[in-house]
Design brief:
Distance between the termini of chain A: 52 Å
Largest interface: A-B, 39 and 39 residues
Number of strands of chain A: 13
Oligomer: homodimer
CATH topology of the largest domain in chain A: Aminoglycoside 3'-phosphotransferase, Chain: A, domain 2
Radius of gyration of chain A: 21 Å
Shape of chain A: globular
Largest sheet of chain A: 6 strands, mixed
Structural class of chain A: alpha+beta
Strand order of the largest sheet of chain A: 1-7-8-4-3-2
């Protein structure tokens, strides 16, 4: 269901409750409670609940500006519609792995959706030492299904091209183009790192081979319309428990290279792995390996059973595509490792470490691992070599 | 200027004259003459002229169906708008190398444009033995300017993505996907070849390495949104004289891999080269070489002087991109050589040869050269190796 209000205005607790009643089947006359639970940087997130029936719903409203490290800049409200449309499109293939969208209002930049507050943001849980046994099989499944099913391997070209045009997302793509693929590789004012990292960062900026590979990866992000990506699949975009996984926040969705979603998720597991030791690290390394194993196995199943491409049966074609995705994923993971360490937006896995020398040490490891994945992505033989590299980073 | 009629109807000589008066500044009261000069398969082309002033104009109207070898199938009228928009967009960069568009009417699928009937279609002229001394420098220039200037190397990403969405062209792309990249590689009913070629064609269908490379090239065509292509740049889409070159008919325009336009043009010169001997062949081989030389030199100039990419100065990046375009172009040229020999749509350069054994011999050469370019595109060192291969094909 989609409605359109007359003009944009920021929701209040009162208007959120009224909209919740309209768009969600609360019992008549229910005494609804409402809290704003977002971080307020990009969106309002209102949770509206009826304590008596136990029913609840989320109202997410995009704000017309983004606040990052104290600065504020305008940001298209259209991202709310992109996000809701991506949730619905991906939901066709993995209804169990994304929240249900009940309604949208394009003018209010509002999405009314399933309340997932019984789950925890995976990054927070992982930092707290959770194992999340389902995480990697679920995300491997999510990646394979959403990406294969929106690609030319599964869709009639008319449908694929219509989706690609509908999910044109220039403003949010530009954030990625700048913050992941450009600024961290140059001495740009958006970068943010501790003085202790200066030497490592300057070596990175002076690494000409790395610059060239970063340029190639950026070109791939700019031009390769392979599938409808989530576009920002880090562990902060995933709600999880021991038995459930839900991917949220696809406001960066657009048609791009399949390896980008895979690589971003792997990189964010790598951050977590770097912070752990022994068996605890093995838990995360198993997630890294199982993500790829599950992705590859499911992608192969889909290729064989849902593929419509005339060359589907051609010897070596599936292997070529999976190999391309793997190489791309390693390169994109490398970019994410670097930008989350020295760029504008960091990860709590590392920034949350209070011991200065330990934090700096791990950040240097993240940087070196990022460089390695970018430079050696053509040679790395398997996902097991990737987890081995994490151990070698010390 | 753009007008919109109320409903589509096929033009007549009378309505063409009336529209010509509206959209082109003929002298008041001029006694206009009008001829339909198209081939009637896809479009009407009316030439409206005032013999007294010597002024004339072309009215091109898309027909709602395509007739190919006796069959008729519906085809989007939107292609007229795509074609006019591509002529205008490319005209911003090479006003001297495309016809001027005076007006369009989206409902009538009509474009009013510059009359080029003082020129000859390059394919016809080349078959008749013309040298067209400007042809390759002009087309090299056309390729470099139109492709560089519509790429991420020159455009702000917002503008590029807006153009990419606006030039989404699924129906015409599908024709290419089927007729160039799919059908000729399988025993498909759209294929069309002499019985004498059966053995060579069956060997081609059984060539698994070739199938795999064709699959990769098709994937590139489907996914790589690098620049606004002409999309069908063969020698039948070019008007020429000894001193002028004009590229027409970009109804297949869409955002695709840069090498596709380059490769299609090269392949069509290769057909012509195959039909010639000695000095006459050298004239065409020089065109092949000079097209690439001019493209590479001009693309390099533009990169240095008009490039906006942050990695513009990165050592080896320009060379990497130009190398990618070269390899892609060879592969796409190979596909064009094959499909124009055994697929649905042939070229007069070969089909027009009356001597049966000579025609079959040249078609076999075209097929083998096509296979070679596809399979060896990663190893061919230069455009001079390509022209050398033409000699070796005998």
């Amino acid at each position: 269901m989609a409605t359109a209000s007359k003009q944009y205005e920021e929701l209040t607790v009162e208007s959120a409750v009224a909209l919740a009643r309209t768009h969600y089947p609360f019992p008549e006359g229910a005494a609804l409670e409402c809290d704003e639970i977002g971080d307020g940087n990009l969106n309002y997130v209102f949770r509206v609940a009826d304590p008596e029936s136990g029913k609840s719903v989320i109202l997410k409203q995009a704000l017309p500006y983004a606040k990052v490290v104290g600065e504020s800049w305008p940001l298209t409200l259209q991202r709310a519609q992109i996000e809701a449309d991506a949730l619905r499109k991906h939901g066709e293939f993995v209804p169990n792995l994304v929240p249900t969208v009940y309604a949208t209002d394009a003018v209010l930049a509002l999405t009314v959706m399933e309340d997932l507050s019984h789950l925890t943001i995976a990054r927070e849980g992982l930092i707290a030492g959770k194992a999340y046994p389902q995480l990697s099989t679920d995300i491997g499944e999510y990646l394979a299904r959403t990406l294969f099913q929106t690609s030319d391997f599964a869709l009639h070209p008319f449908e694929k091209k219509e989706l690609a045009a509908a999910f044109s997302n220039p403003e949010l793509c530009k954030i990625t183009e700048d913050l992941i693929f450009t600024d961290p590789f140059f001495d740009n004012e958006t970068n943010d790192f501790e003085p202790e990292l200066k030497e490592a960062v300057e070596a990175l900026w002076a690494n000409k081979a790395l610059q060239l590979e970063a340029a190639k990866l950026k070109f791939s992000f700019l031009t390769e319309a392979e599938a409808l990506l989530h576009g920002d699949l880090h562990t902060g975009s995933i709600f999880a428990s021991d038995s459930e996984t839900k991917v949220i926040d696809p406001e960066f969705a657009y048609y791009g290279p399949i390896g980008f979603d895979v690589g971003l998720f792997l990189a964010n597991l790598i951050f977590q792995s770097l912070t752990r030791n022994g068996d605890q690290r093995n838990v995360v390394n198993s997630h890294i390996e199982r993500t790829w194993e599950t992705f590859e196995a499911r992608f192969t199943d889909l290729w064989k059973n849902k593929g419509i491409e005339a060359f589907q049966q051609t010897d070596g074609y599936r292997e070529f595509i999976i190999e391309k995705i793997f190489r791309d994923a390693l390169g994109f993971a490398g970019c994410e490792l670097i930008r989350r360490t020295i760029g504008l937006a960091h990860v709590k896995d590392l920034d949350g470490i209070e011991d200065d020398s330990r934090r700096i040490e791990l950040k240097e490891q993240a940087l070196h691992l990022g460089e390695k994945l970018i430079l050696q992505r053509a040679e790395v033989k398997s996902i097991y070599e990737v987890t081995a590299l994490i151990g070698e980073a010390e």
